[in-house]
Amino acid sequence: MYIAAGGALATAVSFGPARIGFGLFLPQLRETFELTTRESGYIASSAFGGFLIALLLAGYLSARFGPRLPVVLGSLAALAGMTIVALANNTLMLAAGTVLAATSAGCCWSPFNNAAERGIADDRRNRALSIISTGTTGGIAGAGLLALGVAWLYQEWRVAWGIFALMALLSTLVNFRALARLPDTPATRPVALPTQLRRLCRLRALPLYAIALSFGISSGIYLSFTVDHVMRAGGLPGLASELSGPVMYIAMGIGGIAGLATAEIHRRIGMTVLVRTLFILSAVSLLACGLAPTSWPLLLLSALLQGSCIMMLSAIFSFWSVRLFPELAAVSFTAVLVIYALGNIIGPAAAGSLAATLGMNIAFAITAALSLLTALLFRERIGRAA
After folding, report:
1. Of the residues 17, 63, 121, 213, which has the fewest C-beta atoms closer than 10 A?
2. Which domain holds residue 77?
3. Which has the closest alpha carbon to 134: 256, 309, 313?
4. End-to-end Cα distance, the chain
5. In contact, 249 and 141? CB cutoff 8 Å
6. Which of 98, 13, 367, 74 is nearest to 218 (CA)?
7. Where would you find the membrane-spanning parts of this chain (predicted)?
8. What is the DSSP string of 10-68?
9. How many domains does the chain have?
């Protein structure tokens, strides 16, 4: 299970500190670099833009050269980006490092679907993919634990980013070795790009694309601004303000464990009920954080729900895209992630500008309304059944 272990490590680094590290440490970064809320939103959106570009690049590289190249490049991007952040002495270096680190998430997700298909036996593939997916949960919780330890020991935030960079180095070395066991070239000839795009642009896929965009917007806002919003409100009562963010991210990682049950829940209640429920829970999470940023029970509930929504909707994106386009499993999944990444870009920039005039609590409330609207309008099928 070398591939599964390497995949779990890669997703832990890329979807943990590399992707959410900026939001986790935003209060300290704001103080060090004198960032405004609007500037913070632009940096966060730029980072998610890097994620989008990397998704497209990873799809091409994986199809052309196999999964090892994009995964290793993604791990190296995380290493370089987090090192730059740790050494940054101005806002430009901070932004450049944050964006570069975030590209790793785009390179270290979809290629492992390809790697599992080519390098793991059918009877062990689902288990391997489950192990790989848990890396995200572990990465988010692990980043929170490290941030908690750094704050508890009165260390500077740069120490945490230095440790993050060392983890990215380990991911590079492990996956360079683990994925070397795979063939260097794809086993089948890829379908022409225009043909792929025509197949993907079907009415039956519209509900999937719509929820990917909506949740991309809301999760991008949550991951970018939650910690800063809580700390600016004074933090959790009885706890040093700088410890509030790490506690929330640990809870978010714990909540993400629910993602492992997504397929079973879907089998029992169906797609429509599951998706509507998740978007209602996402709205509750956003409202709890936005309107009660100093309440222990509501903030922990908010983080647990958001972690569950992130992991469960990620699983839905994966298996629903495969069900709709079985002949284009990897490409269709990448297409959904690209739409999700577009939402990630739109959300933080819009919320940062909105918060500058109306306040972050209003920005969170409006985002919650978007999630509720998505739940209300969602239908699994449009037109004739898939």
Report:
1. 121
2. 2-377
3. 256
4. 35
5. yes
6. 367
7. 42-62, 69-88, 128-154, 160-180, 206-227, 247-266, 273-293, 299-321, 328-346, 358-378
8. HHHHHHTHHHHHHHHTHHHHHHHHT--HHHHHHHHHHHHHHHHHHHHHHHHHHHHH-SH
9. 1
Q: How many CB atoms lie within 10 A of CB 193?
A: 11
Instruction: Count CB-CB contacts under 10 A for residue 85.
Output: 29
Give Rg (Cα) of the chain. 20
How many other β-carbons are positioned within 10 Å of the β-carbon of residue 186? 17
Question: For position 370, which CATH number holds?
Answer: 1.20.1250.20
- Give yes or no for a contact between 381 and 204, defined as CB atoms under 8 angstroms apart: yes
Residue-wise pLDDT for 34-66, tens only, equals 999 999 999 999 999 999 999 999 988 887 888
Report pLDDT for 131: 80
pLDDT for position 36: 94
Query: For residue 257, how many other CB atoms are within 10 A of its CB?
Result: 16
Question: Is residue 240 one of the residues assigned to a domain?
Answer: yes
Q: Give a yes or no: residue 266 inside a domain.
A: yes
Amino acid at 74: G
- Is residue 138 situated within a structural domain? yes
For residue 354, count other CB atoms closer than 10 A to its CB: 20
The list of the chain residues with pLDDT below 50 reads 185-187, 384-386
**Integer Cα distance of 304 and 285 in angstroms:** 8
| Token code pair at residue 204 | 């039956």
* φ, ψ dihedrals at 308, nearest 5°: -65, -45
> DSSP alpha helices (H): ranges in the chain?
2-15, 17-24, 26-33, 37-65, 68-87, 91-107, 111-119, 122-152, 157-178, 193-200, 206-232, 241-255, 262-269, 271-291, 296-324, 329-358, 360-377
d(CA 245, CA 345): 22
Residue with tokens 């987090």: 82
